[in-house]
Amino acid sequence: MDDKFDIEERWPELFDRLDAVKRNAVRQALASAWHEGWIPNREDVENLTDVACGAIGMEEFLRRAKAMARRRGSGAQG
User: Fold this and answer.
1) Distance (Å) of CA 75 to CA 30, 44, 55, 68, 78
2) pTM
3) Rounded Cα gap, residues 61 and 4, in angstroms
């Protein structure tokens, strides 16, 4: 696990479109997963910020998540 949770510094462009409340909610959700051992990656962060700002709906979020899981399950890097 990375020693520092620096999600906003890594991909600031993904957080720029969120208001303070949504930014905090996304940051907390990601921090919780990070504390459980998840290693941040841009694709996961982008999908969560996309749904948080309304760029995509929950159906698209779930479609993307399933596609990522299939790719990762087949050994492809996501």
Assistant:
1) 24, 17, 29, 11, 9
2) 0.82
3) 27
